[in-house]
Amino acid sequence: MSFRLVSIIMALGIIVIGESSATSQPSGARNPVIFADVPDMSIIRVGDAWYMSSTTMHLSPGVPVMKSKDLVNWKIVGYAYDKLADIDELNLKDGKNAYGKGSWASCLRNNDGIYYLSTFAQTTNKTYIYTTQDIESGNWKRHSFSPSLHDHTLWFEDNRIFMIWGGGKLQVAELKKDLSGLVDGSVHTLIENATAPSGENVGLPAEGSQLFKHNGFYYLFNISWPRGGMRTVIVHRSKKLTGPYEGRVVLQDQGVAQGGLIDTPEGKWFAYLFQDCGAVGRTPWLVPVEWIDDWPVLGKNGKAPLGLDLPVNKGVIPGVVDSDEFNRTNGNHTLPLVWQWNHNPDESQWSLSDREGYFRLYAGSGNNGFHQVRNILTQRTFGPVCSAVVAIDVSHLQEGDFAGLSLFQKVYGQVGVRVRGGKRYVEMVNGDGQENSVSESILLKEDRIYLKASCDFRERADKGNFSYSLDGENWKPIGRSINMVYSIPHFMGYRFAMFCYSSGESGGFADFDWFRVNPEI
């Protein structure tokens, strides 16, 4: 995963189409298998279950782990960590932030009954390895060392642990037994120019390493981006871990790339990859694999098919995105795994117990702009269309407070209730990442209001709209559409986001009665 990759997309103005040119489409699952932002996947199979890790960078908790029983429909079962680090960048303090940084592409492996989940972070300049014997209960033990090893992959052999990483020039080293760092003197160049199979005119050197072994060969997956072309899957193979390796391009279609190999108990093989899909984010694809002359041949006639001979997609609800009534029983006042905070939360400024059946957000400071507000609680948006609705009691907001619902990225939109001059107004705000403007403001007399944010990702429309209701049934549009843009620095798809902050003295709060998502507008 790389900022360079997104820079190339923006610089070249590349638009990746969403349909495959393949004509034969079996009934069953459809690509993308998850129509939401789940990039940089790493997948393993343990018996008849699959586990997957992904990237969520600056969000907390981080490095989500998902489970599937059919390789198509997934459910979040945990995270590698609650907080990556307790530092200003991740705490949104002193004007600092970690947008687009935090932890990047992870590697998930199982060896001798122990699960290993590794990642790396520019923010801390460290490489992290988390271990557990029970992937579904979590209890990850954390190991870390410097430096941060870019887009690495773990490998286990002869009671030794190796790591491969890099961009263009790929390196390999042995890890210490206690996972505290690299063995002295073990760093060696594995492939001097891993980009070579995709040509000389390349903007993004080979990266995103993931290593596999099949039928006596080692297969190292990487991606590159030829200038004027599209993201490309490169595979190198060797009879020995240390090489020499020979490489070739194995897929160059629709920008579907970066990932690796996975099999089924029945002996089917797939490549798991992702596609840049506009404002919704980077969406996972499965591409059928055949083995010919000990090379993985991806797709159908060189194309990534839209249809798959796998069970039908059931959608992202409730496994990846879900509604929340905020009703808690037996003293359980935790948030479900579908929720993630934008950066580290301030634990003193939110509660599920101060008012039973409500999620309370206290108004922190908003004087440094919306992107620097703490305690923005988020979930993924999803395609092809979707909406989220919240019901809020705004009776305890104070002068200068603003609370509501957002479509959140660098370019954002908000619908919420603001207190100014002693009166409450429902407002829609357009934020372009640098300035924001109130598109519409309407006097509000009620204590309770319903707010809706809607997304249209069909045909890359990437439109966001907002509306409000006084009774939860009759809706009125407010403000204007926002043009949602997948952009640096956030480096992720749009998020539904609940917020409460103040431009004045802190002290007010908003009580969210419920949050409900719908796969319709």
Q: What structural class is derived from the secondary structure elements? A: mainly beta
Going by CATH, the architecture of the largest domain would be 5 Propeller
CATH superfamily of the largest domain: Glycosyl hydrolase domain, family 43
> Which range does the strand content fall in?
over 45%
For the report, how would you describe the main beta sheet?
9 strands, mixed
Folded structure, characterized:
With 521 residues, the chain is mainly beta. It has two domains: 3-16 and 38-55 and 103-298, Tachylectin-2, Chain A (5 Propeller), CATH 2.115.10; 340-518, Jelly Rolls. It is built from two helices and 37 strands. It has helices spanning 3-12, 88-91, and strands spanning 42-46, 49-53, 59-60, 62-68, 74-81, 107-111, 114-121, 126-132, 141-145, 153-157, 160-167, 169-175, 188-191, 202-214, 217-226, 232-238, 246-251, 257-263, 269-276, 282-292, 295-298, 340-342, 350-351, 359-362, 364-365, 377-380, 385-393, 401-408, 412-420, 423-431, 436-444, 448-456, 463-469, 475-477, 482-483, 495-502, 509-518. Strands 3, 22, 25, 26, 28, 29, 30, 31 and 36 form a nine-stranded mixed sheet that branches. The protein is globular.
